[in-house]
Amino acid sequence: MVNKDGKQERAGRIDVKLRLMHGDEIAMGPGKADLLDAIGRTGSISAAARAMGMSYRRAWLLVDVMNNSFGVPLVRSAAGGSQGGGAGVTEMGREVLTRYRAMQAAAAQAAADHAAALVQLLRCDN
């Protein structure tokens, strides 16, 4: 990649991805955090899944792992029917999401100098 000054740039970046493990399961990670955000915005697991381009089944399985990994469910859902269904992020879910996002930001900040140095070591011939 050539920059505006005609110099070769290194096309690279470092993504810091944190996963909170509960046994062999990922209790919280970047995808699950994004799913919680989407459920909070849409009020629905199925709408959140559609917005993220995943199947309802996949979204439900991720919610199930999250709910079973913490002492209190992160997502509550109501079955459909004449009143309609829906889902919402619980108070515990909001706390977990807030803490996870803060942890992501802190990790990215802590890694920034090392990440920049590593990107400079990438090959320029891409």
Q: Which sequence of strands runs across the widest sheet?
A: 1-2
| Count of alpha/pi helices | 4
Order of helices and strands: EEHHHEEH
Percent strand: 5-15%
Round the Cα radius of gyration to an integer and report it. Answer: 19 Å
- Helical content class: 40-55%
For the record, give the distance between the C-alpha atoms at the N and C termini, rounded to a whole number: 8 Å
List low-confidence stretches.
none
Shape field: elongated
Classify the secondary structure makeup into a structural class: mainly alpha
Sheet with the most strands, sense and barrel status: 2 strands, antiparallel
Mean pLDDT figure: 89
Number of strands: 4
Briefly summarize what is shown.
The protein is mainly alpha-helical and 126 residues long. Helices cover 52% and strands 12% of the residues. A two-stranded antiparallel ribbon has the order 1-2. A two-stranded antiparallel sheet has the order 3-4.
